[in-house]
Structure formats: structure tokens, C-alpha cells
Amino acid sequence: MSEQPAAGTVSLDKTASETRRRFSFRFEIDPARKESPWWMTIVSIVLALLACAIFIAANGKNPWLVYEKMFRGAFMSEFGITETLVKAIPLLLCGLGVAIAYRISVWNIGAEGQFVAGAIGATAVTVYLPEMPMSLTIPIMIVFAVVAGGIWGALTALPKVYFQVNELITSLMLNYVALLLLDYLVFDPWKDPKGFNFPGTPMFTDAQMLPVLGDTRLHLGLVFALVIVLIYWFTVKYTRWGYELRLIGANQDAARNAGINIKKHILIVMVISGAVAGIAGMSEVTGVTHRLMYGISPGYGYTAIIVAWIAKLNPFGLVISSVLFGGLIVGGYSVQTMGLPSSISSMIQGAILFFLIAGNMVSKFRLRRNG
Amino acid sequence: MRETFSLEMKQIVKQFGSVIANDHVDFNCKPGEVHALLGENGAGKSTIMCMLSGVYRPTSGEIYIHGEKVKIRSPKDATKLGVGMVFQNFRLVQTLTAAENIVLGEKSSFWRGPRWMKNKTEEIDSIAKRFGLAFPVDRPIWQLSVGEQQRVEIVKTLYRGAEFIILDEPTSVLTPGEADQLFLTLEQMKSEGKTVILTTHKMKEVMAAADRISVMRKGRMIHTIDKSDTNEKDLARLMVGSDIAPVEIQGRTRPRGELLLNVENLDVYAEHGRKALNNLNLKVYKGEIVGVAGVAGNGQSELAEVLNGLCTWKKGKITFNGVEIKTASVRGAIEAGISHVPENRMKSGLAGSLGVVDNLLFKSYRSEHRSKYGFLKIKSNREWSQRLVEQFDVKTPGIDAPVRQLSGGNQQKLLFAREIDRKPELMVAVHPTQGLDVGATAGVHRLLNGLRDEGKSVLLISEDLEEVMQLSDRILIIYNGCVVGEMRQEEANRERIGLYMAGIREKEEEAV
After folding, report:
1. Which of B17, B47, B195, B435 has minimal CB crowding within 10 Å?
2. Cβ A257–B60 below 8 Å, yes or no?
3. Which among A333, A334, A296, A326 is positioned nearest to A86, based on CA atoms?
4. How many domains does chain A have?
């Protein structure tokens, strides 16, 4: 290898491999590196906003003003903040649901279906047990939502555990099953007879609604979500079962060596994952829409995947990221007055995920001096 | 130039970090020969072949092909120079057909209509037929048997016009019948003027197929010899080394106790129905170290897995501490007092991203001392971890530091701390000093001896003969899933063990 030019000098040799030698640095993949540094998340959000700025500018709007208006709309007024939190509740709950599955590398992308299943379960209480006091109705609704969401999760977990069916496919397809079941219910058996053919159940009674804060739309679901955040954090950190989950997440082979039954854990975790998303569905029908209706979820279950990923599955990170994404949705509405579509927030969401994944990839590389 | 050699590698050195995998290795081939590269696992055979095929680049050294100095920087360069390699783990796309896999990466034509593909398929088929490598060309790879997949790989190298074909441990995945078929193919290749390089550690194949043989040991080229000038015994001696280094015998301090582990007539099947353990018998007494020597892949890992409840068995009886073990259960093995130091500590022994405390808790977190009512006893666990770290002298930035930041030696100390703290009756240690430096190795040996002196038992499965001979009270040699030889420490020598390991001694005994 004595013929190589010294680092930094320019070789006149034109062969491809020699040209490569001219640079005195090279990129290498660091095999030990599994996670990107924490600031990568912030960098990718900033880069996503910059990239989207190009599209906003191409629409003839000043991106800086648009972002400012979005921020004001989402966070700078009481109405904005409470609306942001209202959107953050289902995102946080669904995000918690998928995060617990992702912790042990079970790729549940079925939070959307589990959310709908939970909403259907909660509504079943209003249909079949209509006359009950609130102190009974709400807990029963929670139980029904948990069972319905849990069954939806189990439908993904059972084939995975017993027949090695890829959970990505089953959980995704079960989303459509849940959505079509919802359509069937609101178009036919559960349709409001006095609803002018609107595809939805009758409005819930006061006893079937979650209490709200003052005259805002912010409802008790926020408390559910925060309680589950604390339970999740405590369980993973301080309990024996949480330790087993951490072990499975870190190294499945090693967990098997420690005598942990991985299949059983996958089953339990998927049921819990579905149940938490089910609670999200319940809190949405009882807290916000007050009826089960067509198109109950604008894709909370899918957005939750990004929310969980940005938070790196950390429960407190999830609180921040779900508020951020709730703000994005609300901010998207507020720029409609400027003549931009509200789907601008979907564009930003997508861009953030895109840069986040790219950032994950890039942070595996390290710069090495040739020599 | 000496035109007799079509391929020459001179003074090749390859370093991985501080480990020298190849130490000034010379290797050469004559045109139209089958050249066997013989050596134990870790002798550096695959490393040097990877450099020839462009997967690795040599740290220093020169390669000549037909007398011309070449630089092989990538597998593409190697293909251009006529070097093709069939890896032990195939590089095939499971969902594409055999023919599609073979033309994959070809840049010659942009438009690939059905006619192009048909011509190519016919061309591939004719190559395959000519060399006696039959496989269904139009079937996707996942439908083919392992033997057929290997044929696809071989045809791929031939199709790309390889003159030098490297087969890395080709028979390790084949049934005996498929292996015989492969040797016929080698003859055909030879007659067409191809040079075949075969890396292996199986003596029988070498004697059956090779024209010339190069023996490597511990990263060095020991000898190159014509087959006609040698025999199996000499080769075995070259492979394990006959230099009788004065092995420091660390004898026992107290007599061995009663029978602890008794394995009788054990049969274990691995994937693809391969018989990994074949009527294996093994006894371990209390207070002794039993060494299991053997070339890798003769059933060692399955033996360790069975004893630790990771793998189930078809036939046979395992008795531990007077109780018959009926089913494979990891929990059962842990509770019975069997400790496991696995083969690859970062793959199955430790969780790299978790901290020291979590890694120490692995097997004891269910016990009353470590958790109560399902809650971990965080504070006392931390104190306990701190104590263990100090007691076993694990150098770590802190007890919360992810263990992948620790050096290999300290990771192994941590693993031993965990396994020894449980006061095991039996420790199954698989390659416990692999990749460790001299100091850390000595530390591990001290720990193993310490266990024995306390009246505990150790089953030491290792490829490092020196280590086995130095530590073990008894040495068992495993070959083809069966214990073929047993000797006491005093009567052991490298040569005898080497013959058993190569499966030669067994054959003679059968013949008698």
C-alpha cells in the first residue's frame, strides 16, 4: 500500500478507486451504535419545518408568518391550549399503547383499530345499558373499552405467537375491520332514528359524558392519560414485570437465557397495548364527540406511532410529543384563514417522521480520518 | 516469475483492532488444482479468503494473480479478477428465483425482457448441467434445499466467469450424499482448468478431494504440502500443533465428590433435522472441572443449550443431583443451580443497552432478596450490585452505565459475578475466555478453579486446547455429537486429543 498518495494530496491518477483516496476522511458505520443522541429529535423537527417552509413559500405565503400563526393558534390562547390538549389526549393514550408494544419490539400499528374498538365498546354501554347513574356508567364504559381494545390487540398477538404471523400485517388489516364494523353499526343497527340519516348513534346523555373543565372542551380523559403515563413509568422502572419487559426489549436472546417466557409477554403486552388505545377511543366518544359516528378518528392511531417514536418510548417524552402534535393539528386549523389547507399539519407530521428516521440512520455513521 | 502459481498471496497481515487475525501469511495456488485450507475455527482461514474475495482489505501484504500485482478492494474487483467465493452463509435473495439471483448485479444490459431472461436461464441451466449441479432454475430460493442453494451459489461464481472458486466450509451444511455430489463437481471444475480453494476443518474431505493442502493455526500459515506426501495423522498434528508447550497443571486441592450430572444416551436434533447430539454420554462429579474439547460444530453448543433448558431432546436421560430432568426449562435449570456462561456474551449473556444493575439481576430478580410482591427492591439491589462489582473487580464507569461500554474482559467478569453469586452447583462455561487478553483470561481461570475448590463443578466447553488441558481434571473429546474419547489430565497430550478431534481415533476403534 506504499503507492497511496498521502492524505490530503491530490492524485492525478484517474481510476475510480484512486479518486476515492483523495479525500482524507471517510464515513464508517459504527456497529455498536444503536440509538441516536437525544438532540437528533430536535434537529429533525427543525429540519422538517425548514423543508416544509419551501412548500409553504411555493404557495406564495411567508413560511415564518405561517409558523408564527400556527404557534399562536395552538398555544397562545386559552382556547388554543385547551383544544391542543383535547387533541393530545387520544394521541397520548394511543402513543402509550404502541410504545409499550414497541418496547419489546412488537410492531403494533393497529392503534387506530384498537381505538375504534374501544369507542365501539364504550358506546355499547349507552346502547344496551342506557339508564344508569354516571358513577356506574363511566367505569363500565372503561371496562368495555378495555375489553374491546384488548380483544383487538389479542387478535394480532395470537397469530403472531402461535403461527408466527407478522404483526405488522395483522394489526394493519384489523384497523380496516374495526373501521368497517364501525360503519356497519352507525349506518344500521345503532343509527340515531331522529338523526336525519346522519351516520351516528344518538347523543349521549349527561350521565354518559365525561366531565369537562369549565366551558372548554377539555375533559377528564386528560387525567386518565396522565395516570396511565405514571403507571407505565412506574411499572417499567420499579416492577419485576417491567424489568422483564426491559430485558426482552434490550436483548431477546438474553431474556430467553434468563428464563423469561417471551411468547407469554408478547400476548400480555399486546392486550395491554390494545386496551390503552381502547381507553383513548372511549375518552374520545364520551369526552369530545358524545356519540359514536362515522369517521370518529382522523387517524389518531397512526399519528400516535410518530408520537411514540419521537418520544423514544419514554413516558414523559410522550406527554411532550403528544402536546406538540396536538398543537400541530390545531395550528393547522388556524392557518386555514390564510388560505392554506389544514392538511399542512399532516405534511409537517410526515416530514418530522421522515427526518427522524433519516437522523437515526445518519447517527450510525461516524467520520474517520483516512490514514 | 514462477509461472507455476496462478495465485499468490504474500506476507498478508490482517488486524482487527488489536487482534491479529492473519500474521504474515503466504498462500499460493497452482492452476487447475483443488487446494484445501485446513485449520481449526479461528485459525484465520476465512479471514484470508475474505481478503482474496474483497470483503476485507489486508492491513499489509501483496496479492499476485498470474504474476501481476493486484489490489482487491471490493467483491466487485474480485469478480473482475476471476475470484468468486461461496460463503458459509449464503448471499441469496429468498424470494427471487435461482436464475434471477444469479443474474443479480449484472450490469451488461439495461432492457431485460422475457426473451433476455429466457436466454439467461438457458445459459445458466447449461452451466449447471455441465458441472453436474442440478437445481430447479425457475423456483424461488426459499423453496430450495440447503444443498441446492449452495449449488446456486457455485453456479453464480461460474456464471460470472470465476477462475478461482473459494468454498468456505462447503460441507458444513450438506448431507453426506450431497457432499459426495459436491466432490464430483470439484473434479469437473478441475478438469475445466478452474482452481478451487476449499476451507475446512474436516480431515476426511481434505483427503478425499484436495490435491494440495495448506494448514493454518492461530493466524499463521504452518505448512503447505501435496496430498501424496502426507496422511491424516500428520495433518491432525499440524492442525492442533505438536509443540508440547509445558502446560502448567493446576491440580485439584480436594478429591472429587459424588455424581452430580449424568447424561445418558442423549439424542438432540437441530434445525433441518440434523442430528446434533448422537447418543451422548457424560458424567460430571462434584468438585471437578470437566473439559469438553472438539472442533466447533460437533454438538458443543447444543450440549450447553440442553443443559440450560434452552433446547429439548428426543431421546435419553438427564439426571442432575439425583433428580431426573424431564423437560427442557430455563427456569428449571436456573432453580436447580445450573449456571451458564454462554458462547457469545453480548448476544445471549448480557443486554448491552441496559446498565450493570439490570444485567446482574438477570437470573436472580425472581428471588426474595431482589424483589417482593412483584416490585424490585431498587435500593438493596443497587447496594448488592455495587458489592459484586467491587468483589469481582469489574471496572465500570458506574453501576448504571450500559454494559456495552465495558471492555470485553470486564463484561465477562460481570457475567461471572452474576453466575457465581447464585452459588451454582454446576457451571456450564462455553468458550469463557474467547476474545479476552492474557490478564482477563487468567482471571477467568482463577474463578473456575475457585468454584472447583469450593466443591462445585464446571463443564468447560472450549476450542482452546491449552485451556482445556490446563484446567480440566478430565477431558472429554466430542466429535459428531458423541463423546469419542476421555482422558485424565495427567494422561492428556495435544497429539492424542488432536486425533480424537479429527475423528480418526474413533474410526480405528470401530474397525477393531
Report:
1. B17
2. no
3. A326
4. 1
